[in-house]
Amino acid sequence: MRISAVHNAYSFTSVERSSKKPGSQVKNPISKRGEKTNLAVATFVGGLGVGARLMFELFDDGFVIEDLGQAANKYVNKNHKGLKGAKKDLFVVGTALSFIAAAIGGIALLYTLYKAPKINYEGNVNAFKKSKDMDVYIKGNEVEKELLTQMNDKAKNADEEEKAKLKEQYAKMQMAKNQVPDFIKNDKKFKMPQG
């Protein structure tokens, strides 16, 4: 008796099947997830600033520095018993700095969680506005491309009078060229889709 492997043709990943021709439609690059991520990162960075400011206010009186030094020294003595001299001092300073960084990061995380509903709402609003602007831009580019293709086809079989008229129409089209949305002009890292 011969036993062979069973080959299943099942896929558990979601596959998007479209009835349109591939490449016929340019996909809008704006997503809610991307907008919310941008806002969350910006809020976290702002929270780091708030945390640093709070830590500065705590350290301004000087009593926290002494307590922090003692806590770092206790931690190093407990977990790294064989250290002596300069190496121990470096470990104490590093531990104190890591305590400060953890406190600032914790404050930033709490600040981001506090602002989460606002991030969610603003991310949805920004994505909606930007996607509508981008849809208009993409559709305008498709229409412009189609018109230029038609003008090119006409120019291949045109006489001099028709070519002059097509040249005039081409100049008008260049003056009325599709404008790039404002949020793309201002964002240096945004890359335009190539159609």
How would you sum up this structure, described in words?
With about 200 residues, the chain is an all-alpha fold. The chain folds into two domains: about 30-115, no CATH class; about 130-190. The chain has six helices and no strands. The protein has helices at about 30-60, 65-80, 85-115, 115-155, 160-175, 180-185. The longest helix is centred in the last third of the chain and has 41 residues, at about 115-155. It is rod-shaped.
Count of runs of 4 or more consecutive helical residues: 6
Strand content: under 5%
Radius of gyration: 31 Å
- Choose one word for the global shape: rod-shaped
The overall number of domains is 2
Distance between the termini: 57 Å
What's the helix-strand series? Answer: HHHHHH
**Strand tally:** 0
Roughly what percent helix? 55-70%
**Oligomeric state of the chains?**
single chain
The stretches of 5 or more residues where confidence is low (pLDDT under 50) are 8-20
Mean pLDDT: 78
What does the largest sheet look like? Answer: none
The helix-and-strand class reads mainly alpha
